[in-house]
Design brief:
About 30% of the residues lie in helices and about 25% in strands. It is α+β, with helices and mostly antiparallel strands. The longest helix has 17 residues.
Length: about 525
């Protein structure tokens, strides 16, 4: 790859390393210059640019990142679209991230041009949460280097998700004279919240005397749970104490006592009738993070926990002094799920060019066109989804019956599209980070296409407006960061927010969709006939 100053006459096909700015022109870093781009820059007096020119063996940064991410991602993970040499990996479900540390280190140690960053091993992640990112540092990597990196990864993926299995647990608490019922009740509530956070539930709770005989009798009682939890009235201090002795008396086996995690040292790991049994440390009665959480999370993801696993938890196991750890579970935890992105579906138009019928109510494959657009927004998990109505609002509302959307009526719909956009933006909740503006007359747009826009959104990296493209031509829907909401509410006329894109090119990211969906809107009877004919 060549890099440096290029005379403009040699710049066609090169990739801008720095923005090219001239009167009326602002091309971002990373843009591949076309013949038209070069002509435009020449007309503005530009004579050279700082750019990279790929050689015959070079692989573009996006393609290299895509191939590496596909090799790294195992079951339960999905790769987002490539942008500026980066591909983010997201969890398809809630669970634990499993990391092959050796494979990650091999990849990162091969060449400075190739990087892979992940969350910590066994990190608890929510559905759709980003868990890793592949980043190619330069604009391209040599093909042989890419092949070498892929070979280093081998056939087994370096990352995979262990999804939560819906663990059902039974809690047994022992009592001594003077044990406060209030403390036992609090333990039940805290345990229920913990199990809920890992996709499980508490199947029952019993209380018995703090004796070997009483606890052993309770452990022998049949139950169909996945896990037994024992909270003793007194902390376990020895393998011959009440809890381990009762487990053995009931026919179980004590596997390990203690762990190098603080708080949480006094945990007991055992098995009884093929099920794991945990003797809880006293800190498990508190909602604060402790070693019990780490063991519970693995069991909830269907992973076996061995004495060796516990013994290897010491690095990072000092929890009591770390203020960044999760705070008390006074309310059920809400793991980070990424930005809060809403949907605005514009469905107020009069269909003037159709010459009669309201196109939004025309059935496409048995569903009104507007319903298909709204279902795509819902399938992309946008929340909330606002539908702006105007012309024939009652009929549009009927077409959307049963869908979990909020209708926003625009009384000024006849004055142009901008009024509907303003009405939708004004109705957005205050906590929304971004919104995808969808058109009700684009029936080929899918939830997956919309989701790809959301996954590309990262305002911290300068991706604040996300636009889908087909062979370089921009279309709809468009994702907008909240910083543009005020400007959108000040728009007028029928052009929508297109002008804002041109004014903020440095914040625009394009998603190549691979099909014509972002360019296919139904404005005329001919377009409708072509669509319904192809769908028939």
């Amino acid at each position: 790859m060549q890099f440096g100053a290029l005379p403009l006459e040699a710049a066609e096909g090169a990739i801008l390393a720095h923005a090219a700015i001239a009167p009326g022109v602002s091309f971002k870093k990373g843009r591949r210059l076309s013949a038209d781009d070069v002509a435009l820059l020449r007309g503005r007096g530009v004579t050279e640019v700082i750019a990279a020119r790929l050689g015959p063996e070079d692989v573009h940064e996006d393609e290299a990142a895509r191939r590496l991410a596909a090799a790294v991602a195992g079951p339960g993970l999905r790769c987002a679209a490539a942008f500026t040499g980066r591909v983010n990996l997201h969890a398809e479900r809630a669970g634990l991230l499993l990391v092959d540390r050796a494979a990650v280190d091999r990849l990162n140690g091969r060449d400075e041009a190739v990087t892979l960053a992940t969350l910590p091993e066994h990190a608890m992640v929510a559905e759709r949460q980003m868990v890793a990112t592949v980043k190619i540092i330069p604009f391209a990597v040599p093909g042989p280097l890419l092949e070498a990196c892929l070979a280093l990864l081998g056939d087994a993926p370096a990352l995979r998700l262990a999804p939560f299995i819906g663990l059902r647990a039974r809690l047994i608490q022992t009592e001594l004279p003077g044990t406060a019922a209030k403390m036992l009740d609090k333990t039940v509530a805290v345990t229920e919240r913990r199990l809920h956070e890992v996709g499980g539930g508490l199947a029952g709770e019993t209380r018995v005397a703090h004796t070997v005989e009483a606890l052993a009798a309770e452990l022998r009682r049949p139950s169909d749970v996945d896990l037994i939890l024992i909270a003793g009235a007194s902390a376990i201090t020895d393998r011959r104490d009440v809890l381990p002795a009762a487990i053995e008396a009931a026919g179980g086996e004590v596997l390990h006592f203690g762990m190098p995690v603080d708080p949480g040292n006094l945990i007991l790991l055992a098995r009884l009738a093929g099920r794991p049994v945990l003797g809880l440390p006293g800190c498990a009665r508190s909602p604060k993070l402790n070693g019990f959480d780490w063991v519970l999370q693995r069991l909830a993801a269907g992973l076996e926990v061995t004495p060796g696993d516990i013994m290897r938890m010491g690095v990072g196991g000092l929890l009591m002094e770390i203020p960044s750890r999760p705070q008390p579970r006074e309310t059920p935890a809400a793991p980070a799920t990424g930005p809060r992105v809403a949907g605005i579906v514009l469905a107020a138009g009069q269909s003037r060019r159709m010459g009669g019928p309201n196109k939004l109510l025309v059935a496409i494959d048995g569903k009104p066109m507007v319903r298909r657009a709204v279902e795509a927004a819902l399938a992309a998990r946008l929340a909330p989804v606002l539908v702006v109505t105007g012309h024939m609002s009652e009929q549009v509302a009927q077409a959307l019956a049963g869908l979990p959307v909020r209708l926003v009526h625009n009384p000024d719909y006849a004055l142009g599209l901008a009024t509907s956009l303003k009405a939708g933006v004004a109705a957005l909740p205050a906590e929304i980070d971004a919104a995808v503006v969808c058109l009700g007359d684009m029936p080929k747009v899918t939830g997956r296409l919309i989701r790809s826009l959301v996954e590309a959104y990262n305002p911290l990296e300068g991706r604040a407006i996300i636009v889908p493209t087909r062979l370089g031509k921009r279309g709809n829907p468009v994702l907008w960061d909240r910083r543009f909401f005020a400007a959108m509410r000040a728009l007028g006329g029928d052009a929508g927010a297109k002008a804002l894109i041109g004014q903020n090119e440095e914040l625009v990211a394009e998603v190549e969709t691979g099909d014509a969906a972002p360019l296919t809107d139904i404005d005329t009877p001919e377009a409708l006939a072509e669509l319904t004919g192809s769908a028939a």
